[in-house]
Automatic annotation (TrEMBL):
Pfam families reported for this sequence: Prim-Pol
Family matches, as InterPro entries: DNA_primase/pol_bifunc_N
This protein's name: Bifunctional DNA primase/polymerase
All copies of domain DNA primase/polymerase bifunctional N-terminal, residue ranges: 6-174
């Protein structure tokens, strides 16, 4: 029963909101019915997401009014969610993470996709991180089991939440963060090589200063970001490896760990090269 589930999510600190429900023919419970373009996927509350609550009395009241409401969960508070809606999205994510997808809570969505739960990143929603892969973060929400999809299928757990959520792996986090401002379309790069060298300095500096407990993550992320420059032909792989190794030694990491982390981060980064449009005239 969806009230029981809604109360359980709220007990874990996840703000809950009642969402419309599709009927057996796939029509939405909203006034638009069969003409609704998001059947069973939009909030029942007038103010939508902003009214999401962890208060058990409020939730009980909502479900008293709408016993069959789908269960919406606000993201960005307790968890962020990788929203995969196609086989292409799933393969893209596995490829990005070199087949090492963290084993946190996984939902099979009613539409046949997957939701992978992670600790909040602090970032908002991102649409089209990869083909078939969106990110639901601050200001977003997802449907959760036992919600119903317009196809008639239920949202179900492939793997239930247990203690703790995995952090987003560095290559995924770097995609969510997006390219550095100077590499975005609205900031044409006039000196890509100079920019890449500045990024190399900044990343090496960050690794060298990383506090204990964050060193490996920082190194992994730096290797990924710089790998994207290498993939774009803006930095030389050997130089990146050499600079990052020196920085990581300075931070106090061991040789074997340094080597493995740099290799995996750079490999993932090179698969996602920054796109840059060199200018003929500076
Ligand atoms: Zn509707």
């Amino acid at each position: 029963m969806s009230l029981t589930a809604a109360l359980a999510y709220a007990r874990h600190g996840i703000p809950v909101l009642p969402v419309h429900t599709p009927d057996q023919g796939g029509a939405c419970s909203c006034l638009r019915g069969a003409r609704c373009d998001r059947p069973g996927k939009h909030p029942r509350l007038r103010h939508g997401l902003s009214e999401a609550s962890t208060d058990p009395r409020q939730i009980t009241l909502w479900w008293f009014h709408w016993p069959r409401a789908n269960v919406g969960l606000r993201t960005g508070v307790v968890m962020d969610v990788a929203d995969i809606d196609s086989a292409e999205g799933w393969h893209g994510l596995r490829h990005l993470l070199a087949d090492d997808v963290p084993a946190g809570p996984w939902v099979r969505t009613g539409g046949g996709g997957r939701h992978l739960w992670f600790r909040p990143t602090g970032f908002g929603n991102r649409v089209g991180l990869l083909p078939g892969l969106d990110w639901r973060g601050a200001g977003g929400y997802v449907l959760a089991p036992p919600s119903k999809h317009a196809t008639g299928a239920d949202y179900t757990w492939l793997r239930r939440p247990s203690a703790g959520l995995p952090v987003s792996p560095a290559p995924l986090l770097a995609l969510i963060e997006g390219p550095p401002p100077a590499l975005r379309d609205d900031h044409p790069i006039t000196h890509p090589d100079r920019y890449a060298e500045a990024a190399l300095d900044a990343e090496a500096d960050r690794v060298a200063r990383a506090p204990v407990g964050t060193r490996n993550d920082t190194l992994n992320r730096a290797a990924f970001v710089l790998g994207r420059f290498v993939g774009a032909g803006l930095l030389d792989a050997a130089t990146v490896r050499w600079e990052l190794t020196a920085a990581a030694r300075h931070a106090g990491l061991g040789t074997a760990e340094i080597k493995g982390t740099i290799r995996s981060g750079m490999t993932a980064g090179r698969r996602q090269p920054f796109e840059h449009r060199p200018r003929s005239a500076a």
